[in-house]
Amino acid sequence: MCRGGWGSPGPDCCGRLCVNLRMDFFNCGRCGKRCRFGEMCCGGGCVNVFYDPNNCGFCGNRCKPGGFCRYGMCDYAS
């Protein structure tokens, strides 16, 4: 049984491992769903952190309104 407390990777169980389906690269949103190169698991979905203006460089890093994300940086070379 998995618990989301201190020292546990997450509250979800995949096989015999405790994981966090909202953040785990190898179990993103569901057991066995892997994110591709350049993607991170953000909130249970794989996103391209190089170009996503809502997750630019890392999960939850939003570019300013009207801004863009390039190479994981907001408004790079604008």
Automatic annotation (TrEMBL):
Key word Signal present: yes
One protein family per Pfam: Stig1
Keywords recorded for this protein, A-Z: Signal
Listed InterPro entries: Stig-like
Family: Belongs to the STIG1 family.
Protein name, as recorded: Stigma-specific protein, Stig1
Organism: Musa troglodytarum (fe'i banana)
Lineage: Eukaryota, Viridiplantae, Streptophyta, Embryophyta, Tracheophyta
